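Fold this complex.
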Amino acid sequence: MSFLTLSNIQKSFGPTQVVKDFDMAIEKGEFVSFLGPSGCGKTTVLRMIAGFETPSGGTITIEDRSLADLKPNQRNIGMVFQAYALFPNMTVAENVAFGLKVAGKPKAEIDARVKEMLGLIKLDHLAGRYPYQMSGGQQQRVALARALAPKPQVLLLDEPLSALDAKIRVSLREEIRQIQQQLGITTVFVTHDQEEALSISDRIVVMNAGRADQIGTPADIYNRPATRFVAGFVGTLNLIKATVVDPAAHRVSIGDQGVTLREALDDAKPGDAISLALRPEAGSIAPDARGDTALVGTVTSSNFLGSVIRTRMDVGGSSISFDMFNSPGLTPPAAGETVTLRFTASDLLIIRD
Amino acid sequence: MKSSRLFAWIALAIGATYFLVPLIGTFEFSLRMRRGEYSFDAYQSVFSDMQFRATFGYSMLMGLLTIVFGMLLVVPTAYWVRLRLPQIRPLIEFLTLLPLVIPAIVIVFGYLRLYNSSSFLPLTNSTNGTNLLLMFSYMTLSLPYMYRAVDTAMRSIDVATLTEAAESLGAKWPTILFRCIFPNVMSGVLSGAFITFAIVMGEFTMAALLNRPAFGPYLQFVGANKAYEPSALAIIAFAITWLSMGLLQIVSRFQKTAPVKA
Ligand SMILES: Nc1ncnc2c1ncn2[C@@H]1O[C@H](COP(=O)(O)OP(=O)(O)OP(=O)(O)O)[C@@H](O)[C@H]1O
Ligand SMILES: [Mg+2]
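Structure:
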């Protein structure tokens, strides 16, 4: 049985519907990310769970108990905001103690819990500091400790890392994940950064225009995107134009080259135009590359990206990028060169709209 | 560079002269009560005047009450408008500006019509009722300054997010208002309080028309009837103002929170 359930959630602001038929069942202790472009309704769903917005339709339950009649301050749900939102007039320790004080816990218990929480975020030495005396990363860790101190049933984080610089972002997201696993707390994490979502989630909900386009593990989402939107949003993806040749035999043509797909072509007719997707890391042009499928094309450009080199080639009018690991002594193919890209047929996905 | 600096100094000197010469003149005059020599006789006369003590104490008390009740009105209002009714902010700003536009004498005549002894709420029937009415008048007078000071302080904190953070931690609204919002707008509350105090201490029209023994009417009375004491009073009033300003500085320096960043 799932722990936090959202069934058929709808939300409209005036005439515009921003969340549509949102369904999701989250297990106890699970780390779920909402991933999607700006304005797709991630924050709105999160705020409905927290109780700051009322759904226009549908129900939200925790352990089969509806949250509808509970105000935000009765839900026992912790929240971390993008802008930290620490109380400027309170020290770190007072901020962390706030939820416990409000709950009327005895002083000894509060002190012990604050100490434990500050230990968890490794900021014991800054207990007496005020928020303005700390870096953004430190403030966000305090905000995390403050949200966790009253032992909430669910932890919600709304783009908690967006305001931080790249290095801190990576280390703090790992710290959040590690603390989440240590406490086993059910967590919903909102982000528009796919790498963030892929690296720390148990499951990801890819949202598009108020709907959940796909719900799955990071590997699912990345390797088997269910829609063109998911395929395009998560990771870099080559979209290749192809024409159906023989549906029964899974034969299609890309430019003038024939390819046999692993997937069935359902109800396509010969001559239909379809889209295929291929990840840049799926193919290789090395002489010893293996794979049951090959495409010959002309290199148009090579870009050095540090650890990888991304090369673009043109195959029958479609531009295909592929990556190769950089190594000393490797010369990337020059523009105009003809190369053969090899890959496994199952890496070629049919994209339905 | 050099010449602009010189001009700055000249401007400062002119300003200081404009401000200091009358002050020094007043001070010098206030010392001349005893013929032929300087003395503090005028001050002694002022301080030993029972009416001075009574009116000064009365206005001080009114000032403090006005500040307390004014803040209890203004802080929650400004908070609520920022949080839930941002669309009516222009209306509230307009309303709080009205006391600057409408002369005090008009306001007080309005009050007298509304609350006179034959009205539905005859506040002027009793002394305490009239005191209450005077305090409300003072609150009205100080509203433009109070509201703006508090609202500006609120702009520097993210009221909505702080409120939600507190709510998600289980806090109810009195806790949110008094523990999470109020302390963070203290700078605004203090500057509003200081201005209010200054207004109440010097206000004449309302106190005179409501016939209350306030400091303003007393100043007027002394000014019209005595020679040296008014100068001494003016110097005392200055001293009070400067003392309040100094206190404000000290308090804001010892405040624990960050200096407000834009
Ligand atoms: N209070 C509101 N009134 C009217 N429209 C709103 C309100 N809150 C959000 N919206 C609209 O709902 C849509 C979804 O907003 P939401 O904040 O949930 O997006 P998001 O996915 O969190 O985006 P971002 O990544 O930019 O934070 C947006 O088009 C937004 O304009
Ligand atoms: Mg958002």
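Residues A 42-43, 158 surround magnesium ion (ligand 2) (CB under 6 Å).
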